[in-house]
Design a protein that fits this description.
Elements: H1 4-13, E1 20-32, E2 39-52, H2 56-73
Amino acid sequence: VAFDKLAETANKYLTKGKQVCISGTLRQERWQDKNTNTTRSKVRIIMQSMQMLADKKESNNTAENNSQEDDEEVPF
């Protein structure tokens, strides 16, 4: 669960399969199911911060670029 600017950012940049690191608090919700009369529950993360992580494809490209740059700096 995200609110305000954090929610807007998540909506704009996150898609299915994107890697993200989320920090926040956990909140467990419980209710009585009207059809089966059983107690149901779910846990939600209330987002406080979010960090988008590099995709595997982006990560490989970055590693390849770094190794090419390192080769150019070698004096021999």
